[in-house]
């Protein structure tokens, strides 16, 4: 399996979304979920642009930065971690991963945090979906 994230989710007025923007292991459906979020984010931004109430450049740039950040920090990181766990051949390391997951499952707070992350709800809480650029505080993603 391989993973790729486009260097930019925007080329001029064209927005990349879903598998056109990020390809990753299908484990957990995180890429599918993220692709749906990409489409929802783009739709809200394009709606504001179409109604004439938005700065086109700011909206498209915000889409690029938000969706790429989610793809790198959430989708790619989590699917790579899942793939690495499946490929692990050291029994002691595999047992440690299982113990770690049991500990997470046994702690309701940690379990909720884990589910929020792998379901991308944490990214929605952090960035929203289609949040106007004036309301976002974004850092550059490598």
Fold and architecture overview:
- By secondary structure, the chain is mostly helical.
- The protein has one domain.
- 61% of the residues lie in helices and 6% in strands.
- The strands form two sheets. It has a two-stranded antiparallel ribbon. Strands 2-3 form a two-stranded antiparallel ribbon.
- Strand 2 and strand 3 form a beta hairpin.
- Helix 1 runs antiparallel to helix 2 and helix 3 packs across helix 4.
- The longest helix is centred in the middle third of the chain and has 32 residues.
- The mean pLDDT is 89.
Structural key phrases:
mainly alpha, two-stranded antiparallel sheet, 142 residues
Task: Please outline what is shown here.
By secondary structure, the chain is mainly alpha-helical. It has 5 helices and 4 strands; from the N terminus they run E-E-E-E-H-H-H-H-H.
Largest sheet entry = 2 strands, antiparallel
Give the rounded overall mean pLDDT: 89
Cα gyration radius (Å): 17 Å
Q: Termini, distance in Å?
A: 22 Å
Uncertain residue segments: none
Helix fraction bin: 55-70%
Shape: elongated
Number-wise, the strands total 4
Order of helices and strands: EEEEHHHHH
Q: If helices are DSSP runs of H or I spanning 4 or more residues, what is the number of helices?
A: 5
Lateral arrangement of strands in the main beta sheet:
1-4
Helix and strand content put the structural class at: mainly alpha
Into how many domains do the coordinates divide? 1
């Amino acid at each position: 399996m391989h993973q790729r994230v486009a260097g930019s989710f925007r080329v001029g007025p064209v927005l990349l979304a879903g598998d056109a923007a990020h390809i990753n292991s299908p484990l957990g459906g995180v890429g599918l979920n993220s692709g749906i979020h990409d489409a929802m984010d783009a739709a809200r931004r394009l709606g504001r642009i179409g109604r004439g109430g938005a700065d086109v450049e700011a909206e498209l740039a915000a889409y690029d930065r938000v969706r790429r950040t989610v793809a790198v920090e959430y989708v790619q990181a989590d699917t790579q971690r899942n793939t690495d766990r499946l490929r692990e051949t050291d029994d002691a390391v595999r047992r440690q991963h299982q113990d770690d997951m049991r500990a997470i499952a046994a702690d309701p707070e940690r379990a909720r945090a884990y589910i929020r992350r792998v379901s991308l709800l944490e990214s929605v809480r952090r960035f929203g979906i289609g949040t106007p650029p004036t309301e976002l505080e974004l850092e550059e993603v490598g």
